[in-house]
Protein backbone atom coordinates (compact mmCIF):
# COMPACT_ATOMS: atom_id res chain seq x y z
CA UNK A 1 0.00 0.00 0.00
CA UNK A 2 1.36 3.44 -0.88
CA UNK A 3 0.83 6.14 1.69
CA UNK A 4 -0.11 9.59 0.52
CA UNK A 5 0.05 12.99 2.12
CA UNK A 6 -2.97 15.05 3.13
CA UNK A 7 -3.96 17.83 0.75
CA UNK A 8 -3.21 20.44 3.41
CA UNK A 9 -0.08 21.46 5.22
CA UNK A 10 0.67 19.16 8.21
CA UNK A 11 3.84 20.91 9.35
CA UNK A 12 3.85 23.50 12.11
CA UNK A 13 5.39 26.89 11.27
CA UNK A 14 9.15 26.67 11.25
CA UNK A 15 10.98 28.31 14.14
CA UNK A 16 12.74 31.60 13.55
CA UNK A 17 16.32 31.49 12.43
CA UNK A 18 18.67 30.36 15.18
CA UNK A 19 15.90 28.89 17.35
CA UNK A 20 16.05 25.32 18.51
CA UNK A 21 13.00 23.16 17.94
CA UNK A 22 13.60 20.88 18.60
CA UNK A 23 4.18 18.81 79.83
CA UNK A 24 2.17 17.86 82.75
CA UNK A 25 3.69 17.17 86.01
CA UNK A 26 3.66 13.54 87.22
CA UNK A 27 4.70 11.83 90.45
CA UNK A 28 8.42 11.12 90.55
CA UNK A 29 9.47 7.57 89.81
CA UNK A 30 9.50 5.51 93.04
CA UNK A 31 7.09 7.82 94.94
CA UNK A 32 4.39 6.23 97.09
CA UNK A 33 0.71 6.86 96.72
CA UNK A 34 -1.77 7.00 99.63
CA UNK A 35 -2.49 3.25 99.53
CA UNK A 36 1.15 2.48 100.22
CA UNK A 37 1.63 4.68 103.33
CA UNK A 38 3.04 3.11 106.56
CA UNK A 39 0.54 2.51 109.39
CA UNK A 40 3.08 2.68 112.27
CA UNK A 41 2.87 5.61 114.64
CA UNK A 42 5.67 7.82 115.83
CA UNK A 43 8.89 8.68 114.14
CA UNK A 44 10.69 6.06 112.09
CA UNK A 45 14.31 5.58 113.20
CA UNK A 46 17.04 5.38 110.56
CA UNK A 47 20.46 3.76 110.93
CA UNK A 48 22.09 6.97 112.14
CA UNK A 49 19.41 7.33 114.81
CA UNK A 50 17.85 10.40 113.34
CA UNK A 51 14.07 10.32 113.06
CA UNK A 52 12.91 10.25 109.46
CA UNK A 53 10.49 13.04 110.10
CA UNK A 54 13.40 15.30 111.01
CA UNK A 55 15.53 14.46 107.94
CA UNK A 56 14.95 16.80 104.98
CA UNK A 57 13.64 15.17 101.80
CA UNK A 58 14.80 16.78 98.62
CA UNK A 59 12.42 15.73 95.81
CA UNK A 60 14.11 17.78 93.12
CA UNK A 61 16.75 15.15 92.32
CA UNK A 62 14.27 12.28 91.61
CA UNK A 63 12.15 14.53 89.44
CA UNK A 64 15.15 15.81 87.50
CA UNK A 65 16.48 12.29 87.03
CA UNK A 66 13.08 11.08 85.85
CA UNK A 67 12.87 13.88 83.32
CA UNK A 68 16.40 13.13 82.11
CA UNK A 69 15.61 9.44 81.77
CA UNK A 70 12.45 10.12 79.77
CA UNK A 71 14.24 12.56 77.48
CA UNK A 72 17.11 10.17 76.84
CA UNK A 73 14.75 7.30 76.06
CA UNK A 74 12.88 9.42 73.52
CA UNK A 75 16.10 10.57 71.87
CA UNK A 76 17.46 7.03 71.73
CA UNK A 77 14.27 5.77 70.13
CA UNK A 78 14.36 8.47 67.47
CA UNK A 79 18.06 8.15 66.69
CA UNK A 80 17.92 4.53 65.49
CA UNK A 81 15.21 4.99 62.88
CA UNK A 82 16.93 8.12 61.70
CA UNK A 83 20.15 6.19 61.23
CA UNK A 84 18.42 3.47 59.27
CA UNK A 85 16.61 5.90 57.03
CA UNK A 86 19.61 8.06 56.26
CA UNK A 87 22.11 5.29 55.73
CA UNK A 88 24.82 7.77 56.40
CA UNK A 89 25.11 8.31 52.66
CA UNK A 90 26.26 4.75 52.01
CA UNK A 91 24.28 2.21 50.00
CA UNK A 92 24.84 -1.30 48.75
CA UNK A 93 24.06 -2.30 45.20
CA UNK A 94 22.26 -5.53 44.53
CA UNK A 95 22.86 -7.73 41.55
CA UNK A 96 19.48 -7.22 40.01
CA UNK A 97 17.09 -4.84 41.69
CA UNK A 98 17.47 -1.30 42.91
CA UNK A 99 18.80 -1.83 46.41
CA UNK A 100 20.69 1.25 47.41
CA UNK A 101 19.80 4.73 48.49
CA UNK A 102 18.70 7.06 45.73
CA UNK A 103 19.09 10.80 45.89
CA UNK A 104 15.90 12.74 45.31
CA UNK A 105 15.47 15.43 42.72
CA UNK A 106 18.71 14.64 40.93
CA UNK A 107 17.11 15.10 37.56
CA UNK A 108 16.07 18.68 38.30
CA UNK A 109 18.07 21.24 36.44
CA UNK A 110 19.35 18.82 33.81
CA UNK A 111 20.12 20.46 30.49
CA UNK A 112 19.77 19.19 26.96
CA UNK A 113 23.51 18.72 26.92
CA UNK A 114 24.24 15.10 27.69
CA UNK A 115 25.11 14.19 31.25
CA UNK A 116 27.82 11.58 31.15
CA UNK A 117 27.18 10.26 34.63
CA UNK A 118 23.66 9.34 35.69
CA UNK A 119 21.95 10.68 38.79
CA UNK A 120 22.37 8.99 42.17
CA UNK A 121 18.91 7.52 41.72
CA UNK A 122 19.70 5.99 38.36
CA UNK A 123 23.13 4.83 39.47
CA UNK A 124 21.68 1.62 40.86
CA UNK A 125 18.60 1.18 38.70
CA UNK A 126 19.03 -2.11 36.89
CA UNK A 127 22.12 -3.15 38.84
CA UNK A 128 25.54 -1.86 39.84
CA UNK A 129 27.25 -2.73 36.56
CA UNK A 130 24.91 -0.57 34.51
CA UNK A 131 25.81 2.37 36.74
CA UNK A 132 29.28 2.35 35.22
CA UNK A 133 29.87 4.15 31.93
CA UNK A 134 31.09 2.31 28.86
CA UNK A 135 30.19 -0.96 27.17
CA UNK A 136 29.14 -3.94 29.30
CA UNK A 137 28.68 -7.51 28.10
CA UNK A 138 29.30 -10.91 29.77
CA UNK A 139 28.94 -13.52 27.03
CA UNK A 140 29.47 -17.25 27.44
CA UNK A 141 31.61 -19.39 25.17
CA UNK A 142 30.22 -19.53 21.67
CA UNK A 143 28.45 -16.18 21.78
CA UNK A 144 29.58 -13.88 18.98
CA UNK A 145 31.38 -10.64 19.75
CA UNK A 146 29.41 -7.46 19.83
CA UNK A 147 28.95 -6.01 16.35
CA UNK A 148 31.34 -3.39 15.11
CA UNK A 149 30.32 0.05 13.98
CA UNK A 150 28.16 0.94 16.97
CA UNK A 151 28.58 4.69 17.18
CA UNK A 152 25.55 5.64 19.31
CA UNK A 153 26.20 7.61 22.48
CA UNK A 154 24.12 5.08 24.40
CA UNK A 155 22.34 1.79 23.67
CA UNK A 156 20.87 -1.30 25.30
CA UNK A 157 19.60 -4.69 24.16
CA UNK A 158 17.24 -6.49 26.54
CA UNK A 159 14.95 -9.51 26.87
CA UNK A 160 11.39 -8.21 27.17
CA UNK A 161 10.07 -11.32 28.94
CA UNK A 162 12.71 -11.73 31.67
CA UNK A 163 13.85 -8.11 31.86
CA UNK A 164 17.50 -9.14 31.48
CA UNK A 165 19.79 -6.55 29.93
CA UNK A 166 22.06 -8.58 27.66
CA UNK A 167 24.48 -5.77 26.83
CA UNK A 168 24.60 -2.01 27.16
CA UNK A 169 26.63 1.11 26.59
CA UNK A 170 26.16 4.13 28.87
CA UNK A 171 22.75 2.78 29.86
CA UNK A 172 22.03 5.62 32.30
CA UNK A 173 23.53 8.49 30.33
CA UNK A 174 20.94 11.26 30.26
CA UNK A 175 20.22 12.44 26.73
CA UNK A 176 17.33 14.20 24.98
CA UNK A 177 14.92 11.45 23.81
CA UNK A 178 12.99 13.23 21.04
CA UNK A 179 9.76 11.44 20.10
CA UNK A 180 10.76 8.17 21.77
CA UNK A 181 9.41 9.88 24.92
CA UNK A 182 5.97 9.29 23.42
CA UNK A 183 6.32 5.71 24.71
CA UNK A 184 6.09 7.06 28.27
CA UNK A 185 3.19 9.27 27.20
CA UNK A 186 1.38 6.18 25.93
CA UNK A 187 2.20 4.17 29.06
CA UNK A 188 0.61 6.97 31.10
CA UNK A 189 -2.43 8.05 29.09
CA UNK A 190 -3.39 5.14 26.81
CA UNK A 191 -5.09 3.06 29.56
CA UNK A 192 -7.33 5.99 30.53
CA UNK A 193 -9.64 6.11 27.51
CA UNK A 194 -11.41 3.38 25.51
CA UNK A 195 -10.38 3.36 21.90
CA UNK A 196 -13.97 3.88 20.67
CA UNK A 197 -14.45 7.13 22.63
CA UNK A 198 -14.83 10.21 20.42
CA UNK A 199 -13.65 13.75 20.97
CA UNK A 200 -14.39 16.98 19.10
CA UNK A 201 -11.19 18.98 18.95
CA UNK A 202 -11.17 22.58 20.14
CA UNK A 203 -8.62 25.30 19.35
CA UNK A 204 -7.47 25.09 22.97
CA UNK A 205 -6.54 21.43 22.43
CA UNK A 206 -4.04 22.51 19.79
CA UNK A 207 -2.53 25.43 21.67
CA UNK A 208 1.12 25.39 22.67
CA UNK A 209 2.45 23.02 20.01
CA UNK A 210 6.10 23.77 19.36
CA UNK A 211 7.16 25.39 16.12
CA UNK A 212 8.45 22.90 13.58
CA UNK A 213 6.67 19.98 15.29
CA UNK A 214 5.72 16.89 13.34
CA UNK A 215 1.94 16.85 12.85
CA UNK A 216 -0.56 14.26 11.68
CA UNK A 217 -3.16 16.85 10.61
CA UNK A 218 -5.65 17.13 13.49
CA UNK A 219 -8.07 20.02 12.92
CA UNK A 220 -10.16 21.97 15.38
CA UNK A 221 -13.86 21.31 14.95
CA UNK A 222 -13.34 17.77 13.68
CA UNK A 223 -14.29 14.69 15.70
CA UNK A 224 -11.85 11.81 16.16
CA UNK A 225 -11.90 8.51 17.97
CA UNK A 226 -9.25 7.81 20.58
CA UNK A 227 -7.88 5.11 18.29
CA UNK A 228 -7.51 7.67 15.49
CA UNK A 229 -5.50 9.94 17.77
CA UNK A 230 -3.22 7.13 18.94
CA UNK A 231 -2.50 6.13 15.36
CA UNK A 232 -1.58 9.76 14.80
CA UNK A 233 0.83 9.54 17.74
CA UNK A 234 2.50 6.25 16.83
CA UNK A 235 2.53 6.37 13.05
CA UNK A 236 2.94 10.05 12.18
CA UNK A 237 4.54 11.04 15.50
CA UNK A 238 1.95 13.81 15.58
CA UNK A 239 2.50 16.32 18.36
CA UNK A 240 -0.97 17.67 17.59
CA UNK A 241 -2.51 14.29 18.48
CA UNK A 242 -0.42 14.20 21.67
CA UNK A 243 -1.71 17.61 22.75
CA UNK A 244 -5.34 16.66 22.11
CA UNK A 245 -5.00 13.50 24.20
CA UNK A 246 -3.17 15.45 26.93
CA UNK A 247 -6.03 17.96 27.12
CA UNK A 248 -8.54 15.09 27.25
CA UNK A 249 -6.48 13.84 30.20
CA UNK A 250 -6.90 17.17 32.02
CA UNK A 251 -4.15 19.39 30.69
CA UNK A 252 -0.63 19.26 29.34
CA UNK A 253 0.77 20.17 32.78
CA UNK A 254 -1.24 17.43 34.49
CA UNK A 255 -0.09 14.91 31.92
CA UNK A 256 3.55 15.89 32.38
CA UNK A 257 3.22 15.36 36.16
CA UNK A 258 1.59 11.98 35.62
CA UNK A 259 4.28 10.94 33.15
CA UNK A 260 6.97 11.84 35.67
CA UNK A 261 5.20 9.80 38.36
CA UNK A 262 4.79 6.89 35.94
CA UNK A 263 8.49 6.94 35.14
CA UNK A 264 9.36 6.76 38.84
CA UNK A 265 6.87 3.94 39.38
CA UNK A 266 8.54 1.96 36.59
CA UNK A 267 11.99 2.55 38.10
CA UNK A 268 13.06 4.96 35.36
CA UNK A 269 15.02 7.58 37.30
CA UNK A 270 16.99 9.14 34.45
CA UNK A 271 13.92 10.71 32.84
CA UNK A 272 12.82 14.30 33.39
CA UNK A 273 9.65 15.23 31.51
CA UNK A 274 8.99 18.78 30.37
CA UNK A 275 6.84 18.23 27.28
CA UNK A 276 4.65 15.15 26.69
CA UNK A 277 5.56 14.86 23.00
CA UNK A 278 9.37 14.80 23.32
CA UNK A 279 9.80 18.22 21.73
CA UNK A 280 13.18 19.77 22.55
CA UNK A 281 12.84 21.59 25.87
CA UNK A 282 15.52 22.64 28.39
CA UNK A 283 15.98 19.91 30.99
CA UNK A 284 14.05 17.21 29.12
CA UNK A 285 16.15 14.03 29.20
CA UNK A 286 15.87 10.26 29.36
CA UNK A 287 18.25 7.33 28.85
CA UNK A 288 18.63 4.16 26.83
CA UNK A 289 17.77 2.18 29.97
CA UNK A 290 14.60 4.15 30.71
CA UNK A 291 13.37 3.94 27.13
CA UNK A 292 13.73 0.15 27.24
CA UNK A 293 11.69 0.16 30.48
CA UNK A 294 8.95 2.24 28.82
CA UNK A 295 8.84 -0.03 25.77
CA UNK A 296 8.66 -3.18 27.88
CA UNK A 297 5.79 -1.74 29.91
CA UNK A 298 3.96 -0.66 26.76
CA UNK A 299 4.26 -3.99 24.98
CA UNK A 300 2.27 -5.53 27.83
CA UNK A 301 -0.74 -3.53 26.58
CA UNK A 302 -2.37 -4.96 23.49
CA UNK A 303 -3.42 -1.56 22.13
CA UNK A 304 0.09 -0.15 22.53
CA UNK A 305 1.46 -3.22 20.75
CA UNK A 306 -1.09 -2.82 17.96
CA UNK A 307 -0.49 0.87 17.35
CA UNK A 308 3.31 0.68 17.43
CA UNK A 309 3.35 -2.20 14.91
CA UNK A 310 0.94 -0.62 12.42
CA UNK A 311 2.65 0.33 9.17
CA UNK A 312 -0.11 2.26 7.38
CA UNK A 313 -3.56 3.59 8.26
CA UNK A 314 -6.27 5.97 7.09
CA UNK A 315 -6.65 9.12 9.17
CA UNK A 316 -9.83 11.22 9.28
CA UNK A 317 -9.59 14.23 7.03
CA UNK A 318 -10.82 17.79 7.19
CA UNK A 319 -10.73 20.95 5.17
CA UNK A 320 -7.72 21.71 3.04
CA UNK A 321 -6.26 25.18 2.54
CA UNK A 322 -8.68 25.77 -0.32
CA UNK A 323 -11.72 24.97 1.81
CA UNK A 324 -12.40 21.60 0.23
CA UNK A 325 -13.37 18.75 2.54
CA UNK A 326 -11.28 15.59 2.41
CA UNK A 327 -12.80 12.54 4.11
CA UNK A 328 -9.54 10.79 4.96
CA UNK A 329 -5.93 10.40 3.95
CA UNK A 330 -3.21 7.83 4.39
CA UNK A 331 -0.47 7.97 6.98
CA UNK A 332 2.65 5.81 7.19
CA UNK A 333 4.69 4.83 10.22
CA UNK A 334 7.88 6.85 10.46
CA UNK A 335 9.82 3.82 11.80
CA UNK A 336 11.74 2.69 8.73
CA UNK A 337 12.91 -0.55 10.35
CA UNK A 338 9.21 -1.45 10.37
CA UNK A 339 8.13 -0.16 6.96
CA UNK A 340 11.29 -0.48 4.90
CA UNK A 341 11.05 3.11 3.72
CA UNK A 342 14.11 5.09 2.70
CA UNK A 343 16.00 2.04 1.53
CA UNK A 344 16.06 0.43 5.01
CA UNK A 345 15.47 -3.33 4.99
CA UNK A 346 12.54 -4.25 7.26
CA UNK A 347 13.81 -6.29 10.19
CA UNK A 348 12.56 -9.91 10.35
CA UNK A 349 10.08 -10.33 13.19
CA UNK A 350 9.93 -6.59 13.81
CA UNK A 351 7.22 -5.36 16.18
CA UNK A 352 8.21 -1.71 16.05
CA UNK A 353 7.89 0.74 18.95
CA UNK A 354 9.00 4.34 18.26
CA UNK A 355 11.62 6.44 16.52
CA UNK A 356 12.44 10.09 17.01
CA UNK A 357 14.53 12.98 15.81
CA UNK A 358 15.24 16.55 16.87
CA UNK A 359 18.23 18.78 16.25
CA UNK A 360 19.42 18.36 19.84
CA UNK A 361 18.59 14.68 20.27
CA UNK A 362 19.75 13.49 16.89
CA UNK A 363 18.20 10.20 15.82
CA UNK A 364 16.74 7.98 18.55
CA UNK A 365 15.03 4.62 18.24
CA UNK A 366 13.34 1.97 20.36
CA UNK A 367 12.77 -1.27 18.43
CA UNK A 368 11.31 -4.59 19.49
CA UNK A 369 11.41 -7.82 17.51
CA UNK A 370 10.28 -11.40 18.11
CA UNK A 371 12.12 -14.56 17.05
CA UNK A 372 12.23 -18.18 18.27
CA UNK A 373 10.04 -17.45 21.28
CA UNK A 374 12.08 -14.44 22.40
CA UNK A 375 11.15 -10.77 22.26
CA UNK A 376 14.08 -8.37 22.39
CA UNK A 377 14.15 -4.60 22.81
CA UNK A 378 16.97 -2.47 21.41
CA UNK A 379 17.36 1.21 22.21
CA UNK A 380 19.74 3.44 20.27
CA UNK A 381 20.41 7.09 21.10
CA UNK A 382 22.17 9.51 18.77
CA UNK A 383 24.58 7.61 16.50
CA UNK A 384 27.70 9.62 15.69
CA UNK A 385 28.90 7.88 12.54
CA UNK A 386 27.15 10.30 10.21
CA UNK A 387 26.13 7.41 7.95
CA UNK A 388 22.65 7.43 6.42
CA UNK A 389 20.05 5.47 8.41
CA UNK A 390 22.67 4.72 11.09
CA UNK A 391 20.09 4.51 13.87
CA UNK A 392 18.29 1.69 12.04
CA UNK A 393 21.49 -0.10 11.01
CA UNK A 394 22.84 -0.11 14.56
CA UNK A 395 19.50 -1.23 16.05
CA UNK A 396 19.37 -4.13 13.60
CA UNK A 397 22.94 -5.15 14.51
CA UNK A 398 22.08 -5.13 18.21
CA UNK A 399 18.95 -7.23 17.63
CA UNK A 400 20.91 -9.74 15.54
CA UNK A 401 23.51 -10.07 18.28
CA UNK A 402 20.84 -10.29 20.96
CA UNK A 403 19.03 -13.18 19.31
CA UNK A 404 22.36 -15.01 18.99
CA UNK A 405 23.23 -14.34 22.64
CA UNK A 406 19.92 -14.67 24.48
CA UNK A 407 20.06 -17.64 26.85
CA UNK A 408 23.83 -17.89 26.38
CA UNK A 409 25.06 -14.77 28.13
CA UNK A 410 25.14 -13.46 31.68
CA UNK A 411 22.89 -10.50 32.30
CA UNK A 412 24.67 -7.22 32.90
CA UNK A 413 21.56 -5.76 34.54
CA UNK A 414 17.80 -5.90 34.66
CA UNK A 415 14.80 -3.83 33.68
CA UNK A 416 13.16 -5.04 36.90
CA UNK A 417 14.49 -2.11 38.95
CA UNK A 418 10.91 -1.63 40.08
CA UNK A 419 7.88 -3.82 39.60
CA UNK A 420 7.03 -3.91 35.88
CA UNK A 421 3.79 -2.36 34.78
CA UNK A 422 0.93 -4.72 35.43
CA UNK A 423 -1.08 -5.93 32.48
CA UNK A 424 -3.73 -3.32 32.86
CA UNK A 425 -6.87 -2.55 30.96
CA UNK A 426 -8.72 0.64 30.34
CA UNK A 427 -12.45 1.27 30.51
CA UNK A 428 -14.17 -0.87 27.92
CA UNK A 429 -11.09 -2.88 26.95
CA UNK A 430 -11.00 -5.60 29.57
CA UNK A 431 -7.88 -7.40 30.76
CA UNK A 432 -4.89 -7.43 28.48
CA UNK A 433 -2.45 -10.19 27.65
CA UNK A 434 1.26 -9.71 26.95
CA UNK A 435 2.17 -9.67 23.29
CA UNK A 436 5.49 -11.37 23.84
CA UNK A 437 4.37 -14.75 25.07
CA UNK A 438 4.61 -15.88 28.69
CA UNK A 439 3.93 -13.49 31.50
CA UNK A 440 7.06 -11.54 32.51
CA UNK A 441 8.81 -12.69 35.62
CA UNK A 442 7.58 -10.94 38.73
CA UNK A 443 10.03 -8.30 39.84
CA UNK A 444 11.18 -7.88 43.40
CA UNK A 445 9.27 -4.88 44.83
CA UNK A 446 11.43 -1.94 45.66
CA UNK A 447 12.41 -1.96 49.30
CA UNK A 448 11.72 0.96 51.65
CA UNK A 449 14.61 3.30 52.22
CA UNK A 450 15.45 1.83 55.61
CA UNK A 451 15.69 -1.66 54.16
CA UNK A 452 17.89 -0.55 51.27
CA UNK A 453 20.38 1.46 53.23
CA UNK A 454 22.55 -1.19 54.79
CA UNK A 455 23.51 -0.70 58.44
CA UNK A 456 22.94 3.04 58.58
CA UNK A 457 25.12 5.77 60.07
CA UNK A 458 27.51 4.58 62.85
CA UNK A 459 27.53 8.01 64.47
CA UNK A 460 23.75 8.04 64.82
CA UNK A 461 23.78 4.56 66.34
CA UNK A 462 26.51 5.56 68.82
CA UNK A 463 24.53 8.64 69.89
CA UNK A 464 21.39 6.56 70.33
CA UNK A 465 23.29 3.94 72.36
CA UNK A 466 24.87 6.57 74.58
CA UNK A 467 21.50 8.14 75.31
CA UNK A 468 20.11 4.74 76.19
CA UNK A 469 22.98 4.23 78.68
CA UNK A 470 22.31 7.61 80.28
CA UNK A 471 18.63 6.73 80.59
CA UNK A 472 19.47 3.41 82.25
CA UNK A 473 21.83 5.15 84.70
CA UNK A 474 19.11 7.64 85.58
CA UNK A 475 16.68 4.85 86.32
CA UNK A 476 19.29 3.15 88.54
CA UNK A 477 19.81 6.38 90.51
CA UNK A 478 16.06 6.66 91.02
CA UNK A 479 15.79 3.09 92.27
CA UNK A 480 18.65 3.53 94.79
CA UNK A 481 17.26 6.88 95.98
CA UNK A 482 13.84 5.32 96.48
CA UNK A 483 15.32 2.39 98.39
CA UNK A 484 17.29 4.73 100.64
CA UNK A 485 14.16 6.70 101.51
CA UNK A 486 12.21 3.62 102.64
Please render the helix and strand layout as text.
Blueprint: H1 60-86, E1 135-139, E2 154-159, E3 164-169, H2 182-189, E4 198-200, E5 223-225, H3 226-234, H4 239-248, H5 252-265, H6 288-299, H7 302-308, E6 312-319, E7 325-332, H8 336-339, E8 350-358, E9 362-371, E10 374-381, H9 390-405, E11 409-410, E12 413-414, H10 449-452, H11 458-485
Antiparallel strand pairs: 1-3, 1-11, 2-3, 2-10, 3-12, 4-5, 6-7, 8-9, 9-10
What this model shows, in words?
- The chain is α+β, with helices and mostly antiparallel strands.
- The protein has helices at 60-86, 182-189, 226-234, 239-248, 252-265, 288-299, 302-308, 336-339, 390-405, 449-452, 458-485, and strands at residues 135-139, 154-159, 164-169, 198-200, 223-225, 312-319, 325-332, 350-358, 362-371, 374-381, 409-410, 413-414.
- Strands 1, 2, 3, 8, 9, 10, 11 and 12 form an eight-stranded antiparallel beta sheet that branches. A two-stranded antiparallel ribbon has the order 4-5. The chain has a two-stranded antiparallel ribbon with strand order 6-7.
- A hairpin with a 3-residue loop joins strand 8 and strand 9 (362-371).
- The longest helix has 28 residues, at 458-485.
- Mean pLDDT is 76; it is low at 1-11, 13-57, 78-119 and 418-461.
Amino acid sequence: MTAFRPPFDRTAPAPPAGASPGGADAPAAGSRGPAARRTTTGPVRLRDGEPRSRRPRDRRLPRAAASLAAACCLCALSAAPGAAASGGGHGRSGSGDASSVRASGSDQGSSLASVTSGSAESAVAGGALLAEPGVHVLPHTGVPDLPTGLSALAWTVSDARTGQVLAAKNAHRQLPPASTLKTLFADTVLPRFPREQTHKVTPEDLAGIGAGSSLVGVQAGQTYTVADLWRGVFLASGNDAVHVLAHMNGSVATTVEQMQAKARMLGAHDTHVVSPDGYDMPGQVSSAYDLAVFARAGLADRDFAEYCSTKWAQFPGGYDKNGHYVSSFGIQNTDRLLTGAGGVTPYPGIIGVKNGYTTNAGNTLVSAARRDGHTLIATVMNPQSGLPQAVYTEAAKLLDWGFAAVGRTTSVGTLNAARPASFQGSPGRGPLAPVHGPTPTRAVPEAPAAARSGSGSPTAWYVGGGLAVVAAASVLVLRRRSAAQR
